Every structure is written in C-alpha cells, then in structure tokens.
Amino acid sequence: MPDVLGRNGIRLGLAAADKWDAIRQCGALLDGLGAVDPGYADAMLERERSVSTYIGEGVAIPHGTDAARALVRRTTLGVLQFPAGVDWDGQRVTLCVAIAARGEEHVAVLSALAQILMEPKAAERLRTSSDVDEVHRLLSGVGEDAKT
What we know:
By secondary structure, the protein is α/β, with parallel strands linked by helices. The chain has one domain: Mannitol-specific EII, Chain A (3-Layer(aba) Sandwich). Helices cover 36% and strands 20% of the residues. A five-stranded mixed sheet has the order 1-4-5-3-2. Helix 1 (19-32) runs antiparallel to helix 2. It starts with 9 loop residues before the first strand and ends in a 10-residue tail after the last helix.
C-alpha cells in the first residue's frame, strides 16, 4: 500500500477557503509526494470546472483531466481532511481524496473507494478521525488492484 497511499500522503485537520483552495492543496500534496509533474494541479482545477468531483458522504475526489494522465509519474492517493468543511457547490466536503492515476488505474481506485464510502461508519471515521494510522487502515484496500 505505501506505493499508492503512504502515511505521508494523509493530512488531517486542514482548512480551506473554498473548493478551489482545497483542490490546490490536493495538487500541492501530490506534487510534494513526487507523484506528478508540474501542471497536474492546474489540470485538477480544469477537471473541476468541467464536472464536479463531489461524490457524496462529504467526500470529493479531485483528479486531473484525461490529458493530464501524461503528467502522472505513479498512481498515488492523497487524503486531505477539512473538519470545518468546504462548500462544494452547495455540498459540505470534509474529506478530499486526491487522485493521480496512470492509464486506467483510476477505475480500480474509484471502485475501492466507493466500497468504503458505502459503509456509513467507515465514511464517518474518515471524515472525523484525528489519527493518521486509522485513516491509513480504513483506506488500506484502495488502490491495491491499481498497482503496477
């Protein structure tokens, strides 16, 4: 799992001015992890302008455009928690799962994430936990099928 989501990719207790700030923070995290080349964060903003990445249960999944996959060095997730919430077009988001995926690997990542979020207790813990290890444990299955 460290290839896809390492403990260093989990940031808890953050604040964001708005969804655009939250997405910029997602892009900066992926960049800081060495997962993407310059320009990926801009592609994440472009994706959001074309279609919302809000998926429900207080969770958004910012990711780049299809063309931006060329900027992905390795499939990586970043988890950013915003306890006070961020307005996402009228929805309250408290958790962003930033996704950088090569090729079609994002399909497996999204599928596994959806399974976790369908469990209300697990989704609640992701939104409220102050323990990096707990968040890592909850998301430990995400991306396993996407590893190359």
